[in-house]
Specification:
Lysozyme; three-stranded antiparallel β-sheet; 8 strands; disordered N terminus
Length: about 475
């Protein structure tokens, strides 16, 4: 009995979230030249609210001009009006700063009669005596705005605690540093439903092409949205990147910029030092995000490892208890939920990789899928094997004919298929439109909504797809 208890405790220790410790400087070096960037991102993650906008220089992140604060307006304004106000004020302030920088350039090395704003900007650049510093800082790629992420990062920290034990175990098994499991904090803030404008999905933000190398990505299952499946894929991919590039700073940066681009950067700069590459490489696609990806990662390690200093005591959810069953045959989600002794919504929440077509019951969960269950179900496989063969699914999408507007007598037609989408926690209209590749306007029109409409988790939307969508 004692041996069994000790074995159980040993397993729990291995599965627990690792105690925070400074990352190995041999694996994750922190060149002094990167410290201004690291400090900037720590402040964005911990000090600045989502209702604050930081105006700064894109190259020298220690040059912060001002912080626009909309927290008072956020307390009483409609979200759409608030966003419009933020954009308008930010644009106006950016233009004012640009004019200030250009005026300082025109005034030359010893300007006189500066107002308070001009004097503050002039003092900010006191450590740089180059004659064109203000002209260059006024350039379109240099003056930049960044919204704060404090609330979003805190939520990411809370959500991460559900997954870190299993994620760390995956990286240990792959003989990779467990610090890499913190990358989703800067990729997605652990938003399982994260979906980017370029089609990247899930907490690891795999684009479709890379995702298909390691995961199932099709109209039934998109494993990029499954935290544990995508973590296994990320471990394989990051291992490949490190093998190819030879260091973790380069591998991490290539996760954002691509391995070919980083190899080109090493060749052109003639150095493998990440700070030198960030400072000197001028590739067309090596923009702000790529230059800051590794400093952001180091800042995230700082904050996550000392979260109490930045956020105080946080209530973390318990780690997720994972129970998976690999399906030997297709099964409908309602039947699977009944056998798992839960409801369909609970099963769908545990299996975000399942498409809306599967969750709605129009198609079965395919054979081979690792179905995550809310509790161990020893008889699940037995029940599954005893099920009668499923009939072929009947078409459920409603199809209506619409005139193409061609001349009278033409037989040319176009079809529009309307499918449904169940809103999940954290999804927005833009995410759903991008996911189904329809315009926001057509999605709003199909559901009688406006941009001000607030979505609710569980809400079912009609999504116009096919040739009729615009």
């Amino acid at each position: 009995m004692r041996t069994g208890v000790l074995s159980f405790l040993a397993i729990m220790v291995l599965r627990a979230v690792s105690v925070a410790a400074p990352p190995d400087p041999q694996l994750f070096p922190r060149p002094a030249a990167l410290e201004p960037q690291i400090r900037f991102w720590r402040a964005i993650f911990t000090e600045h609210s989502s209702h604050q906008v930081v105006l700064h220089d894109a190259l020298y992140l220690d040059k912060v001009y001002k912080v626009l604060d909309f927290r008072r307006e956020a307390a009483g304004m409609d979200s759409v009006e608030l966003e419009r106000l933020k954009r308008e004020v930010t644009d106006l302030e950016m233009e004012r700063l640009r004019r200030t920088l250009l005026r300082l350039h025109e005034l030359g090395p010893n300007p006189q009669g500066l107002d308070s704003e001009e004097a503050a900007v002039y003092a900010l650049w006191a450590d740089d005596r180059s004659p064109d510093r203000f002209l260059e800082a006024a350039g379109p790629k240099r003056l930049r705005s960044q919204r704060g992420l404090r609330e979003r990062f805190a939520e990411g920290l809370r959500e991460s605690r559900r997954w870190f034990p299993e994620m760390e175990a995956t990286f240990r098994e792959a003989d990779l540093p467990i610090e890499l499991t913190r990358l989703p904090l800067i990729e997605s803030c652990f938003n399982v439903q994260a979906y980017s404008k370029v089609g990247a999905a899930g907490i690891w933000q795999f684009i479709p092409a890379t995702g298909r190398r390691f995961l199932r990505v099709d109209n039934l299952v998109d494993e990029r949205r499954d935290v544990l499946a995508s973590t296994r894929a990320a471990a394989r991919y990051l291992g490949e990147l490190h093998d190819d590039l030879g260091s973790w700073p380069l591998a991490i940066t290539s996760y954002n910029h691509g391995p070919v681009g980083i190899s080109r950067a090493v060749d052109e700069v003639g150095s493998r030092d990440i700070a030198t590459i960030i400072r000197r490489y001028d590739g067309n696609a090596f923009g702000f995000a790529s230059r800051n990806f590794y400093p952001e990662f180091l800042a995230a390690l700082d904050v996550e490892g000392d979260h109490k200093t930045y956020f105080g005591d946080m209530a973390f959810p318990p780690p997720l208890e994972v129970h998976e069953h690999r399906l030997t045959r297709p099964v409908g989600i309602q039947v699977a939920a009944r056998m798992a002794r839960c409801d369909r919504d609970e099963l769908a929440e545990l299996n975000p990789a399942l498409s809306d077509t599967v969750v709605s019951g129009r198609r079965s969960i395919p054979a081979g899928y690792r179905l995550r269950l809310p509790a161990p179900a020893k008889d699940f496989g037995t029940q599954l094997a005893a099920l009668p063969a499923e009939p072929a699914p009947a078409p459920s999408a409603r199809v209506r004919k619409a005139s193409t507007g061609s001349s009278k007598g033409s037989k040319a037609k176009r079809t529009q298929t309307v499918v449904t989408h169940r809103v999940r926690k954290g999804e927005t209209i833009s995410h759903i439109a991008a996911r189904h590749r329809v315009s926001i306007r057509s999605l709003l029109a199909a559901n009688g909504m406006t941009k001000a409409t607030q979505l609710k988790s569980g809400q079912v939307l009609r999504v116009p797809t096919g040739n009729g969508s615009t």
